[in-house]
Amino acid sequence: MGAGVLYAMVAGLLWGLVFIGPLLLPEYPAALQSFGRYLAFGLITLPIAWMDRRQLRLLSKSDWLEALKLAAIGNILYYLCLASAIQRSGAPLPTMLIGTLPVVIAISANYRNAARDGSIAWRRMLPSLLMIFAGVACVNSVELAALQSASKSDVQTYVGGALFALMAVACWTWYPLRNADWLRHHPDRNPRVWATAQGVATLPLALLGYISLWIYMSATGQDFSMPFGPRPQYFITLMLIIGLFASWMGTLCWNQASQRLPTNLAGQLIVFETLAALAYAFILNRRMPEPMILLGIALLITGVITALRNRPA
Question: CA–CA separation, 56 vs 229, rounded Å?
């Protein structure tokens, strides 16, 4: 139990890195950042896959199909929506909407497989739900206050970013549930090998997406220097860093946590990703968060701690 919580914490700290990528590369399209990150992820896993080739051969056709689904929705589509949201709305709003994942996943898993993971009475979950949504409201109040003096186009951009963030929440509600199902049904399999398998499955999707985006941008005459943009060395280095630490190592740690913890408990520990992302964003911007944002963070932490005390029965 303690090892599972520790693995989830490390995964959150690593996943928080993905929120600063769009802030460091604001001139790069979100699709290019998504495909670039997972192309790097896939390439990084190739030598690891060679070392794990014996265990990878044990995976069936249905296992590889499952890895492909997880790669498409939980990796590429999720990060495409997240990067689009951050570029349109800034980091705080998408980060806090992603911060609702602990409760959203807990609710989804609560009665999805009660025989395996147990269930929590709704009346026991209500206090944590209310605190987490209050935290999101506090952060959004700061953002909405700034929008009151903004132009109509800025408001539309912000709302569009919020919609992309909600799509990212949907993707990452589905991903940990399906991923945990596979891991719990295969307790004899190494979580590291499953992380590598997802990286291998991601590679052809990311490569196809990258080439398609390149062709599309050339055909539409967009003023963007492909294949690596105006800062190629910076872009490649950042994609490799995020691909190694956030994608492969983060997935590895999360797989370790998912194999040790009930799904409705592990899902709530995604809060570490939210807290890490907020900390990285404010450090990058070299400013202290506003009092309302600090209150929102405190409510978020309190809400999840309250939820963690509700062990599944």
Answer: 35
Of 29-38, 261-270, 282-291, which has the strongest mean pLDDT?
29-38
313: in domain: no
CA pair distance 197, 199, nearest whole angstrom: 5
Q: What is the pLDDT of residues 78-119, one digit of tens each?
A: 888 988 888 887 766 777 677 778 778 777 877 676 666 666
* Alpha-carbon torsion, ordered 171, 269, 245, 98, to 10 deg: 40
What's the half-sphere exposure (Cβ side, CA atoms, 13 Å) at 37? 28
Q: Which tokens hold the place of 239? A: 């994609």
Determine the structural domain holding residue 277 and report its residue range: 2-308
Instruction: Decide if 300 contacts 39 (C-beta within 8 A).
Output: no
Residue 297: alpha-carbon gap to chain centroid: 18
Q: What's the one-letter identity of residue 251? A: T
What span, in angstroms and rounded, lies between the C-alpha atoms of 243 and 239?
6
| Alpha-carbon distance values, 35 to 4, 41, 250, 258, 294 (Å) | 30, 10, 18, 26, 33
Predicted pLDDT of residue 113? 66
Q: Give the number of domains in the chain.
A: 1
Per-position DSSP letters for 241-264, written without gaps between them: HIIIIIIIIHHHHHHHHHHHS-HH
Given a cut of 80, is residue 167 above it in pLDDT?
yes
Q: CA 222: distance to chain centroid?
A: 29
pLDDT digits (tens, 9 = 90+) for 197-209: 999 999 999 999 9
Residue 83: inside a domain: yes
